[in-house]
Amino acid sequence: MNAKEEFKKMNRAFYERYSRLDDSDDFWAYLFKPVRQSIRINTLKAPLELVLERLSERYELEPVPWVREGFFIRPPGGGTVNFGEMPEYSLGLVIPQEASSMIPPVVLEPKPGELILDMAAAPGSKTTQIAQYMENEGCIIANDAKRDRANILIANLNRAGVLIAKVTVRDGAYFGRYENTFDRVLLDAPCSSVGMVRKNFKFAYTWSIHKVLYHTRIQRKLILAAYRALKPGGVLVYSTCTVDPLENEAVVDFLLQRTDAKLEKIKLPVKGREPILEWEGREFSPEVKKTLRIHPQDNDTEAFFVAKIRKPR
Ligand SMILES: C[S@@+](CC[C@H](N)C(=O)[O-])C[C@H]1O[C@@H](n2cnc3c(N)ncnc32)[C@H](O)[C@@H]1O
């Protein structure tokens, strides 16, 4: 099976655009391969060791190097885990979450007692992870623009035993009026979801440059509001599950050009690659080098992009 040929057949414009970004056989081969299943153990409900002991009787587990509570999981001998049939899932002891998607809350470093804004929170895997690090002390405003997705968010927060989240349904830009308010803000932005192709080829079939441009506009609006809402000295984490430079480096560069935001290098045991500093004739600030760009072949995960931004005091 030649993955490049398969993607060319699925969506030629998609193939051509991202070949300019990464033409390696590995990029296309990993994008074609189903993503490994992974879970996060929810320490709000039980000690990590206890859940791990239960699970290791029935599954093969391998630690996710960048998250203490994260594990790749598979049934002995291979196959897929059916979370619907897993009692630990129904009890909220375990949260299925793609391994790269566990990075932004680790980078955010929320602390008990803080006030956190999760600007685009549904279905809530990162909100539950944030609550876990806060040990259910403090307050998380978990917002999503879509009411039906907010309902799923509420169900997931309940199952995970999160007691400190207040769910709101707003365009994230609304929070720009709460200037200098939040200790930390996570903007896990809506995006064209190229990284999700490993979960579902529909993200390749339905991809178009219009989708990228549509999301870029929303991301710029949201990142400015997120930065405004942040307290001086606070941390904003911007993340997407896509590889497009217009939705990643260009959005961060946009914020750097318009505000006094500073970028910080992300130090985690995760393999990344050089961020894109020039795209379609535009050059981005060299500061953008501090962001984390992950392609699927780097750690055998979905593609991801993460930026750690600080507001000076
Ligand atoms: C990448 S998903 C978030 C995933 C979530 N953070 C998690 O880890 O489970 C992006 C979310 O942004 C929401 N969204 C789209 N436009 C928005 C806007 N203008 N303001 C706030 N949320 C928005 C979508 O409904 C979607 O749920």
TrEMBL record:
<comment type="similarity">
    <text>Belongs to the class I-like SAM-binding methyltransferase superfamily. RsmB/NOP family.</text>
</comment>
<feature type="active site" description="Nucleophile">
    <location>
        <position position="241"/>
    </location>
</feature>
<dbReference type="GO" id="GO:0003723">
    <property type="term" value="F:RNA binding"/>
</dbReference>
<dbReference type="GO" id="GO:0008757">
    <property type="term" value="F:S-adenosylmethionine-dependent methyltransferase activity"/>
</dbReference>
<feature type="binding site">
    <location>
        <position position="188"/>
    </location>
    <ligand>
        <name>S-adenosyl-L-methionine</name>
    </ligand>
</feature>
<dbReference type="GO" id="GO:0008173">
    <property type="term" value="F:RNA methyltransferase activity"/>
</dbReference>
<dbReference type="InterPro" id="IPR053630">
    <property type="entry name" value="tRNA_Cytosine-C(5)-MTase"/>
</dbReference>
<dbReference type="InterPro" id="IPR023267">
    <property type="entry name" value="RCMT"/>
</dbReference>
<keyword id="KW-0694">RNA-binding</keyword>
<dbReference type="Pfam" id="PF01189">
    <property type="entry name" value="Methyltr_RsmB-F"/>
</dbReference>
<keyword id="KW-0808">Transferase</keyword>
<keyword id="KW-0963">Cytoplasm</keyword>
<dbReference type="GO" id="GO:0006396">
    <property type="term" value="P:RNA processing"/>
</dbReference>
<protein>
    <submittedName>
        <fullName>Nucleolar protein</fullName>
    </submittedName>
</protein>
<dbReference type="InterPro" id="IPR011023">
    <property type="entry name" value="Nop2p"/>
</dbReference>
<dbReference type="InterPro" id="IPR031341">
    <property type="entry name" value="Methyltr_RsmF_N"/>
</dbReference>
<feature type="binding site">
    <location>
        <position position="144"/>
    </location>
    <ligand>
        <name>S-adenosyl-L-methionine</name>
    </ligand>
</feature>
<dbReference type="InterPro" id="IPR049560">
    <property type="entry name" value="MeTrfase_RsmB-F_NOP2_cat"/>
</dbReference>
<feature type="binding site">
    <location>
        <position position="171"/>
    </location>
    <ligand>
        <name>S-adenosyl-L-methionine</name>
    </ligand>
</feature>
<feature type="binding site">
    <location>
        <begin position="120"/>
        <end position="126"/>
    </location>
    <ligand>
        <name>S-adenosyl-L-methionine</name>
    </ligand>
</feature>
<keyword id="KW-0949">S-adenosyl-L-methionine</keyword>
<dbReference type="Pfam" id="PF17125">
    <property type="entry name" value="Methyltr_RsmF_N"/>
</dbReference>
<dbReference type="GO" id="GO:0001510">
    <property type="term" value="P:RNA methylation"/>
</dbReference>
<feature type="domain" description="SAM-dependent MTase RsmB/NOP-type">
    <location>
        <begin position="27"/>
        <end position="312"/>
    </location>
</feature>
<keyword id="KW-0489">Methyltransferase</keyword>
<dbReference type="InterPro" id="IPR029063">
    <property type="entry name" value="SAM-dependent_MTases_sf"/>
</dbReference>
<dbReference type="InterPro" id="IPR001678">
    <property type="entry name" value="MeTrfase_RsmB-F_NOP2_dom"/>
</dbReference>
